[in-house]
Request: fold
Amino acid sequence: MSPTLNLVGDPEADALLAEDPFALLIGMLLDQQVPMESAFAGPKKLVDRLGDLKVETIATADPEEFAAVCATTPAVHRFPASMAKRIQGLAEYLVENYDGTPDQIWRRDSPDGPEVLKRLKALPGYGDQKARIFLALLGKQMGVTPDGWRKAAGAYGDEGSRRSIADVVDEKSLLEVREFKRAAKAAAKNK
Reply:
């Protein structure tokens, strides 16, 4: 049974994220320069338009046609063309390296936390921070807890933190994460 997520605040979008590792990876990929819940709503928009979210289908889609799907109002992201390329790049990487089975990133050969982090950082569009946040999301909300995952996730893995989407479980925690991000941004600006 899939865990219950509340990342978007829409039951259908959240259920998709909980059930489909590719949807969750796409949501994290889209989580930049838009509100968190908007980013994680992107996969549901794709399912609504495509009928499903098959890795191979997206990897082999005509790039211009897929970009048009992403740009259809409401767009999947505020930068639909560039994000369409990133989503397709992610899908292609998953086909080439994980036989199109995204959860093999954290399941193949029973990896420990540092290895999962390394695999996540290798994904197109995933840098160090995004990979650490996603690892924390896996551990805190998806029941994926390989040895050393908290340490590998860094501060994002801290119990009780309110730093990222990994900590969003309801409206209250969403607001707490937003406040943490606002304060961190203000502190960085004042340095």
Q: What stands out?
A: The CA atoms of residues 14 and 31 lie 15 Å apart. The first helix runs from residue 11 to 19.
